[in-house]
Specification:
The complex is a heterodimer. Chain A is of the alpha/beta class. Chain A is 31% helix and 15% strand. Chain A folds into two domains: 87 residues, 2-Layer Sandwich (Alpha-Beta Plaits), CATH 3.30.70; 339 residues, TIM Barrel (Alpha-Beta Barrel), CATH 3.20.20.70. Chain A is built from 16 helices and 21 strands. The longest helix of chain A has 26 residues. The termini of chain A are far apart. In chain B, strands 10-11-12-13-17 form a five-stranded antiparallel sheet, covered by helices on one side. Chain B has a four-stranded antiparallel sheet with strand order 4-5-3-6, covered by helices on one side. A three-stranded antiparallel sheet of chain B has the order 7-2-9, covered by helices on one side. By secondary structure, chain B is of the alpha+beta class. Chain B is built from ten helices and 17 strands. Chain B has one domain: Aminohydrolase, N-terminal nucleophile (Ntn) domain (Glutamine Phosphoribosylpyrophosphate, subunit 1, domain 1). Classes of the chains: A alpha/beta, B alpha+beta. Chains A and B meet through helix 4 of A and helix 5 and helix 9 of B.
C-alpha cells in the first residue's frame, strides 16, 4: 500500500533573484532544511524539514527567504481537519505518543480578551504616571490578618520576622520555571541577569542550579519537583523562595522526560545524574500521596532553611483547583502557583497539552474567591501562570485576584523564540531550547538579559498607565478589584465564575 | 468639635455647611451630632428611616427581638417646601438583649453591627441611619441647610458635629445614601471617590462586613471600625493604612520596618483615589486626605475647638479668627480627641 505522506507544514520561498547562494541558511539551520550542492554552487530547500522558526528568514542577508504556511489544502471538513488526518497518519506509522512543545494552541476562548478595564472620568481624576508616583511593589508570602503584638513579644522582632518571610518584587511579573536542560545555559543566564536587574524572580524549574548561577540566588525561586533533580541543602539555601512543583498547566497529571542525549556533562552535574541518562520526573511525587504528605514536605523544606524562606506549591489549573489550592494553603504553603490551560512546556504529549486543565482566568477567580470565603486569602500569595501575552493580561489577572504572574513564553519570545513548538527536538535555532553548543552560542546572555529587562520595563510602564487611568496609584488597590473589569460577549455563568459584571452595567 | 466636651447648638454647623452650598446639588445633605442625648447616654440611639408606615410595622418586631425598648418616638421635624415626600423618621433608645448573641464571645458592638446590617440589607423599606450612643445622624435628600431645617437641628446641642452636602455621581440620591454614613458611634462624611472600592469591599467581606449599598462611605466606615475598634490601632496608624505613604517615603523613614509591615499586611485596606474624609466617634474626630491629596481639606483650631472642612470659608464663617489654620499634608491625619 502507499504510505500516507505528511504534507509539509511550511513552504520555504526562495527568491532566486535575491539569493546569492551565500549558504548562511544552509549553515544555520539545525533542521537541515537548506541544502547546498557544491558542484552546482546552488542552495536549495527541503520544505518537509522546516519547523517554521524563521531563523533563516531573520538572518538571510539579502532577504531572499520567506517562510509561509503550506497552501496545499485538503478537502474542507469541519470535523476531519488537516491536523486530525496528519496526526492519524503519523501515529499509524510510528505507534507513538505525539509530542509537542510550548502552550496549548487550540482556539479555546481567551477570557482576557472578553474583559475590559475601567478608567476614571470627572469624579476621580485619572493619574498621570509620568508626573505622579505609581507603585507596583508587591510582597509575596503569607501574611497575618492583623498587626498584633502578643504578650512577651518584642514589636521589632515581630516586624523583622515577618519581613524576612516576604519577598519584595518591583513589578508583579516573574519568570516561570524553565529548567537548565529544557533550555540552554545562556537562556537561563539571560533570565537570571534580567530578574536581578528588574527586581523580580527567576525559577530553576527542575533543572537544579548551575554553579555559575549561585550569585543570582537572591532573585531565584528554586524548584523541588518529583524527580528531585539537583536538590540539596546548598541549593535550597541559595534561592529567595522554594517552590514545590506538583503540576504544570501544559501537562497536568504528567511527569517529565529529559532525553539522555540532552544530559550533557554540565547538566549531569547540575541535575546530579549520570551523563547521558534520561532524566525522568515521575507524574506524582512518590512521597506525596495526599495533602498530609504535601504538608510534611512543605515543613521539611521550611525546616531545611530554618523558616527563613517562603515555601510555595505549584499546581496545574484543573477542575477542582479551588479546593485543592485551599488545602495547599492550609497545609502551610506561603504562596500558590496556578498554571493554566495555556501554560507552556519544553515537551509534552500533545493530547494532554491540548485537552487537560482549565483556563487560568477562571482558575484565578475561583481560587481567590474560595480562599477569601475560607478566610485563607492572606495566608498565601497567589501567582498565576500560563499564556500571559501582554501587560493587559497581567492587569486583568491582578484585578481578578492574582498577586503576581509568571511569564515563560513571553520571556522566550523576547529571546527570539517564534513559538514553533519544536522545543522537544533540541534543535532550537534560536539557541534557547537546545544544548547543542553550535546553537546555544547564538544566544548572548548579556543581550538576552537586556531584552528581557526591556520587556519587563515596557510592561511595567503600561501597567502604570492603566492603573493611572483607573485612578489607582498602588497595585495593591487593583488586587481582586473586579469592579474595574467588565465582560463582553460572555455567558452569565462565565461572568458569575469570574465575578464580573457585563459591560454597560454601572457599579 | 469642642475637645473639652462642651456642647453647642447645631446652628453652628448649619451655617458652616450653608456657606458651601455650591459644593452640593440638593440630592443629599446630612449631619451627625455627638452628645445630643445626655438623658440616654447608655442606650443605643437608633435613627431609622421608614419608606412607608408598613415598613415600620414589618421592621419593629425584628428590632424588639434583639433589643429592650427604652423609648421610641418620631424624630421631631418641620414641614418645609424644599423637602418633598420625606420618609417616616423614628428614633429608638435601645439596650441589646445579650442572650440573643450568636455566642458568648460575640462582643456587644459586634452584635449591634450584625443586627443593624441584617435590617439594612433586607431593604424592606427600613434603613437604620445611625446606631450609636448619645449621638445621631440626620440626613436626607436636599441641601444640607434644608435637611437641617427639616430636622430642627438647631434645637440640639452637641460637642461634636459633622455635616455633608452631596453631589452624587455613583449611586442615586436617596435618603439612606446621604452622608454621614453611620454604624455604632461612627459617622463618616466623605468627599471623593474610591477607586479601590472593589478591593476594599472584598477585603472587608473577609472580616464579616457586607457592603450592601455600593457607596464608598460605607466601605470607609467599616474600615475605620475594623482597624480602630477591632484591630485596636490608633488613628495615626489607621491613617497610615488608609492613606499609606509611598514606598519612597517609607525607605527614608526611621520606622521603615513598621510601615513596610503595614503596607504588606493591610494593602487591601488602602483607600486609593481622591478623598477627604471626616470620621467621628464619641471620643474623637479624624480628618484625612488621600495619599496624594486630590481633594481639599483644611483644619483650624481656636481655643479648645477643632475645625475640619473642605473650605476655609466654612470654618471662618463660624470662627472668624482662629488661632491656627492649616492645610494638612496628603495622608496626614488631623485628630481631635475628647479630653
Amino acid at each position: 500500500m502507499a504510505k500516507g505522506k505528511i504534507t509539509p507544514e511550511f513552504k520555504i520561498i526562495r527568491d532566486m533573484e535575491k539569493c546569492v547562494s551565500c549558504q548562511v541558511c544552509h549553515r544555520v539551520c539545525s533542521n537541515d532544511a537548506h541544502l547546498y550542492d557544491p558542484d552546482a554552487g546552488e542552495v536549495t530547500s527541503e520544505d518537509s524539514r522546516c519547523v517554521g522558526c524563521h531563523f533563516c528568514e531573520t538572518l538571510c542577508p539579502t532577504g531572499a527567504l520567506t517562510i509561509r504556511r503550506n497552501p496545499s489544502e485538503i478537502k474542507l471538513n469541519a470535523l476531519w481537519s488537516g491536523r486530525a488526518l496528519e496526526d492519524i497518519t503519523r501515529q499509524s506509522s510510528t505507534g507513538g505518543v505525539l509530542l509537542t512543545g510550548m502552550g496549548n494552541d487550540r482556539p479555546f476562548p481567551v477570557y482576557f480578551d472578553h474583559l475590559l478595564l475601567n478608567a476614571s472620568q470627572v469624579t476621580n481624576p485619572s493619574i498621570d504616571p509620568l508626573r505622579e508616583p505609581m507603585e507596583l511593589r508587591t510582597y509575596l508570602g503569607g501574611k497575618p490578618d492583623r498587626l498584633e503584638i502578643k504578650e512577651g513579644q518584642k514589636p521589632e522582632e515581630v516586624l523583622k520576622s515577618f519581613l524576612s518571610s516576604q519577598i519584595s518584587l518591583e513589578t508583579p511579573i516573574l519568570f516561570s520555571a524553565m529548567s537548565y536542560g529544557s533550555i540552554s545555559l545562556n537562556a537561563v543566564k539571560s533570565l537570571a541577569k534580567a530578574a536581578r536587574e528588574a527586581g523580580t524572580l527567576w525559577n530553576t524549574g527542575e533543572g537544579g542550579l548551575h554553579p555559575d548561577l549561585y550569585p543570582f540566588g537572591p532573585h531565584l525561586v528554586v524548584q523541588v519537583a518529583s524527580g528531585r533533580f539537583g536538590v540539596h541543602q546548598e541549593y535550597l539555601e541559595a534561592g529567595a523562595a522554594i517552590e514545590i512543583k506538583i503540576g504544570q498547566g501544559a501537562k497536568p497529571g504528567i511527569g517529565g522526560h529529559l532525553p539522555g542525549e540532552k544530559v550533557t556533562e554540565q547538566i549531569s552535574r547540575t541535575r546530579m545524574i549520570p551523563e547521558g541518562t534520561d532524566a525522568l520526573s515521575p507524574a506524582p511525587h512518590h512521597d506525596i500521596y495526599s495533602i498530609e504528605d504535601l504538608k510534611q514536605l512543605i515543613f521539611a523544606l521550611k525546616e531545611a532553611v530554618r523558616y527563613r524562606k517562603p515555601v510555595g506549591v505549584k499546581i496545574a489549573a484543573v477542575h477542582n483547583v479551588a479546593p485543592i489550592a485551599s488545602g495547599i494553603v492550609r497545609a502551610g504553603a506561603d504562596f500558590v502557583v496556578i498554571d493554566g490551560l495555556r501554560g507552556g512546556t519544553g515537551a509534552a504529549p500533545r493530547v494532554i497539552r491540548d485537552h487537560v486543565g482549565i483556563p487560568i482566568e477562571l482558575a484565578i477567580s475561583v481560587v481567590d474567591q474560595r480562599l477569601r470565603e475560607e478566610g485563607q486569602r492572606n495566608r498565601a500569595s497567589l501567582i498565576a501562570a500560563g499564556g500571559f501575552r501582554n501587560s493587559a493580561d497581567v492587569v486583568k489577572a491582578v484585578a481578578l485576584g492574582a498577586d503576581a504572574v509568571y511569564v515563560g513564553t513571553a520571556a522566550l519570545v523576547a529571546l527570539g523564540c517564534h513559538v514553533c513548538q519544536k522545543c522537544y527536538t533540541g534543535k532550537c535555532n534560536w539557541g534557547i531550547a537546545t544544548q547543542d553548543p553550535y546553537l546555544t552560542k547564538r544566544l548572548n546572555p548579556e543581550i538576552g538579559a537586556r531584552r528581557l529587562v526591556n520587556l519587563l520595563r515596557a510592561w511595567s510602564l503600561e501597567i502604570k498607565e492603566m492603573l493611572g487611568g483607573m485612578g489607582i496609584n498602588a497595585l495593591e488597590s487593583l488586587r481582586g478589584n473586579r469592579e474595574q473589569l467588565r465582560a463582553v460577549g460572555l455567558a452569565e455563568t462565565d461572568m458569575k465564575i469570574l465575578g464580573v459584571k457585563p459591560a454597560g452595567e454601572a457599579w | 468639635m469642642n475637645r473639652e466636651g462642651k456642647t453647642f447648638s447645631g446652628e453652628v454647623i448649619i451655617r458652616a455647611m450653608a456657606s458651601m452650598h455650591e459644593r452640593s446639588n440638593g440630592l443629599g445633605g446630612g449631619f451627625a451630632g455627638y452628645g445630643i442625648y445626655p438623658d440616654h447616654m447608655d442606650d443605643y440611639a437608633f435613627h431609622v428611616l421608614y419608606e412607608t408606615p408598613e415598613a415600620r410595622k414589618q421592621s419593629e418586631p425584628s428590632l424588639e427581638e434583639n433589643y429592650h425598648l427604652v423609648k421610641e418616638e418620631p424624630i421631631p421635624t418641620r414641614q418645609i417646601d424644599a423637602v418633598q415626600n420625606p420618609p417616616l423618621v423614628w428614633r429608638y433608645f435601645l439596650r441589646p438583649r445579650m442572650e440573643r448573641r450568636i455566642s458568648s464571645v460575640e462582643a456587644e458592638e459586634d452584635f449591634i453591627v450584625r443586627t443593624v446590617m441584617e435590617i439594612n440589607q433586607k431593604k424592606t423599606g427600613a434603613f437604620i441611619a445611625s446606631s450609636g450612643k448619645n449621638m445621631g445622624i440626620f440626613k436626607g435628600v436636599g441641601y444640607p441647610e434644608e435637611i437641617a431645617e427639616f430636622f430642627r437641628l438647631e434645637e440640639y446641642r452637641g460637642y461634636l458635629w459633622t455635616g455633608h452636602g452631596r453631589f452624587p455621581t455613583n449611586t442615586p440620591g436617596w435618603w439612606g445614601g446621604a452622608h454621614p454614613f453611620g454604624l455604632l458611634d461612627w459617622s463618616v462624611v466623605h468627599n471623593g471617590e474610591i477607586s479601590s472600592y472593589g478591593t476594599n469591599r472584598r477585603y472587608l467581606k473577609n472580616f464579616g462586613y457586607d457592603c450592601a449599598f455600593y457607596t464608598d462611605t460605607e466601605v470607609i466606615t467599616y474600615l475605620f471600625d475594623l482597624l480602630h475598634r477591632k484591630h485596636q490601632l490608633d488613628f495615626p496608624v489607621v491613617a497610615k493604612i488608609l492613606a499609606a505613604p509611598l514606598w519612597d517615603e517609607i525607605e527614608r523613614m526611621e520606622e521603615k520596618d513598621f510601615h513596610q509591615f503595614l503596607r504588606a499586611v493591610y494593602g487591601s485596606a488602602l483607600l486609593n483615589g481622591p478623598f477627604a474624609v471626616i470620621a467621628a466617634h464619641n471620643r474623637a474626630m479624624v480628618g484625612l486626605n488621600d495619599r496624594i491629596k486630590l481633594r481639599p481639606l483644611v483644619a483650624a483650631e481656636w481655643q479648645e475647638n477643632l475645625y475640619i472642612a473642605s473650605e476655609e470659608s466654612a470654618i471662618r464663617e463660624v470662627c472668624p479668627d482662629p488661632d491656627r489654620v492649616w492645610a494638612p499634608e496628603a495622608g496626614e491625619p488631623v485628630v481631635g480627641y475628647l479630653r
